[in-house]
Design brief:
The structure is a homodimer of 284-residue chains. Chain A has 284 residues and is of the alpha/beta class. In chain A, 44% of the residues lie in helices and 17% in strands. The first copy, chain A, has a five-stranded parallel sheet, sandwiched between helices. In chain A, strands 4-3-2-5 form a four-stranded parallel sheet, sandwiched between helices.
């Protein structure tokens, strides 16, 4: 249908339903504190809550008040404490600082900008390197950049030169702007893209160092292609993804000529989506 | 949540979205005729149409007029000819006879009662035998019995003694009645279970011979458990299945005490479901 071959690497069946478990478990395991605090729009929160349960630790997850209900409930079901913040009043970073002051023995874990997070995500890059004869390039979503940085680091560790492209919502294009400017650019406010997993203000510092020279390109994706990609994955591939999980296919829809006749590996990052929202998107 | 461990063997990502491709390809490959006729409520039809396209053959698929639109369209998209029959007027078997008389060079292929079909499905049993240290029993849906017969034959071929249970809708329980009576029992009309993949009048003769001594038991499943299982697979496991694909989990919901503390392998047979029906079932 598209004039190219697609391989889907799906993290929707990963523990807690998204790739974030790779990062969360590695970070929780390598942090000496028994109490962790993190900001997350949901998937990292679920993953960290489950990792902490497995490791016998406690965690508090700061989430935007408009997060998907299913993500809030999931953090709680894994035993995590949820702290809701209205991002119009204060940023998640500000709320994290308040909590850290209240709980001095707790360790603050970044959902995306931390060497342990990158190393956890690098396991996906290592797995993709093992399969690298099956495709010509990799496309993954970019928000804070932890996944892309991890994939690049994992591939490099295996001496694999597969090009890695990032898929970013057009209305949240700080990473694309950063790459063009050659320095970190930030969004003024959290962009309200349907891809709620990438509503970040900017790339993380650790990630930017890896991405600025390691990325093959960033594709800016209009919102309607994210919805079309989610529908195509559901109807053509029987795959249930959350909007962020559809970003890589959306990038192909947005810049198809770039990938013509190639074998493209798309990372479907997660499948945790509010059922009401999902049904609305299927019918959009 | 259920007090048992679940392994899901998903055929929703199989070619054409269901296990039926195993049978269809094997049957089409081993039939000398270049034109095939088959009756199918949809998945076998899609699978046979695609197999015939791959093998350079032609096929006509007889389908009930109330088949899911997505299944009719899919058969056509793979190059198959669709012949719709109102099952209140005549059975699919009668329509097949009419067509066979009109096309004397064509071979009639049973969607479920044929040694090549069983042998194709046996590849799933062989694959499960390789993983048999990971679970204590297998549950798969039963309609015409081709899948269950194939799984039993595949396991036996690998000298694997894992018990195989069948999941059958209560309102289409001809297989359970047959097992109790010790002889093939038939439904008077095609039962209108939501699991449209098992709306068959009876087990196939070839399948019955394998099933009557090879099956560990048949669990009769009320309709509401099929819907609950479809919802659970979607929300808890990020898996999109058609109603028939939820039957194995529905059997666990219906007879949980039977499987307590066991590691149960559930066959999710397919994922091709009309979107309007799917959304209705998610909200039921």
């Amino acid at each position: 249908m598209l004039g190219l071959e697609i391989v889907i690497a799906s993290e929707t069946f990963q523990r807690t339903g998204s790739f974030k478990f790779r990062a969360a478990y590695n970070a929780a395991q390598n942090t000496t504190s028994d109490r962790l605090i993190a900001a997350s729009s949901g998937n990292f929160g679920q993953a960290l809550a489950y990792a902490c349960r497995l490791l016998g630790k406690q965690c508090t997850i700061v989430m935007p008040a408009n997060s998907a209900a299913i993500k809030i409930d999931a953090v709680r079901s894994y035993g995590g404490t949820v702290d809701l913040v209205d991002v119009k009043d204060k940023t998640r970073a500000q709320r994290i600082e308040e909590l850290a002051a209240k709980l001095p023995d707790a360790a603050v874990i970044s959902a995306y900008d931390d060497p342990f997070v990158i190393a956890g995500n690098a396991t996906l890059g290592e797995e993709l390197a093992e399969l690298s004869d099956q495709f010509d390039c990799i496309i993954a979503p970019i928000g804070g950049g932890g996944l892309i940085a991890g994939i690049i680091q994992g591939l490099q560790g295996k001496r694999c030169a597969l090009p890695v492209f990032a898929a970013e919502p057009e209305i949240a294009n700080d990473a694309a702007r950063s790459l063009r400017a050659g320095r970190l650019e930030r969004n003024e406010t959290e962009p309200q893209t349907v891809a709620d997993g990438v509503r970040t203000l900017s790339l993380g510092e650790h990630n930017w160092k890896i991405i600025k020279d390691g990325i093959a390109g960033i594709i800016e994706v209009p919102e309607h292609h994210i919805v079309a990609a989610l529908q195509a994955l559901f109807f053509q591939a029987n795959l249930k993804v959350e909007p962020t999980g559809a970003l890589a296919l959306a990038a192909v829809l947005s810049d198809r000529s770039h990938f013509l006749n190639q074998r493209v590996c798309l990372i479907a990052t997660g499948g945790n989506v509010d059922s009401a929202l999902f049904m609305q998107l299927l019918q959009a």
